[in-house]
Model the fold of this input.
Amino acid sequence: MWGSISSEQRGGTLEKDTLCSKDDVILVKGPEGALSLELAPLREGVARAFPRFSPRNLKLSTESARALSDELSKRPYSRILVQDSKKRIIRRALGPMGWGVDWAIPRALKHECSMATTYDLPLEESLLDMNGAKPDLANTYNMHGIGIGLDGRRAWAFYTDEGDTARIISEGERKQGLMVAARTEDIFEVADCLVRSLAASKKSWAVFSTDMGRFVRDFDPITLMRLSVDSPRPFDHKAVPLSKENKMAALRLFSEYYDESILQSVLRLRRFKREGNYQVFFVDGGFAITKLEGDVGLLYDIYVTPSKQGQRLGSELMKCSLTSLAGKVSTVYLHTSYPRAKRLYEKFGFKAVYSQLGIRLDEIALTPPSAK
Done:
């Protein structure tokens, strides 16, 4: 996103970021639009790709799709996890090139599974939570869950339902889920079934507290980070507030970033204006949204379209966002899971203060033709 060189290959333009040796970003450009993939290694042979695409309904030409396939094939990965767009941009591009495309999380369950609530727990039995202690069932009445059978034993997992997100958080007063079994080792099995069943029910995210990481590591969770900076200071910058003149360009960027229609983006913007505590800032090729929450500011979203990557627009939007909040709030915070974005934020003084583990339930797994 910030700094690149380019080379030509078979009619598609490939741009590989060289800002930092830790970065591995592929940018494919063609007359039809642009697609970027930031690759983050997870373990030997496995990586996760973070996509950006423009326009929203991008369909890569055969030349661009072949260029993308060739560049990905050079990487040392036999499995690449990625969240595709609603229009299946990546699947449509790489499938015809011989890539295997499957759901990253299998929908098939390993054990017989049934819906459950914490009222279904047999309290007369000696049940354990993930730490081997007696489970604390206070304030769990509103949780959803599953129960599975294991050779005469049973195990349960419970979560808090937040629309497209299921939260399994065990941290003190923020408890939003728990896992219970007669044996601690059975919690690995019920965690596996929970993730698979949530994926089958078309949830988008399962969010776990970090102390549950050992039970879900096979699903390659994403580290979701909360970063903050105290006493934000102002900067000189080139970004401007949303206006009548740049509104349509900003809505097109909304449509790309949120993967939604222009009409949906219009409704989103109306909600921002109606609530009154949001501000939208614009540069040619990107936007930033901030939100006031009393004495605290939130960098709600920041986005640079792939075709404008490498022009330091992200830095301009960061400067603008912090300037808009300087003098109004004591602290600014944001959430991210992108390694390169984290490094940008750290340049402006942000530090990680909290993290959770997110499993993207609708990711696909790409397998290169040579591995099939």
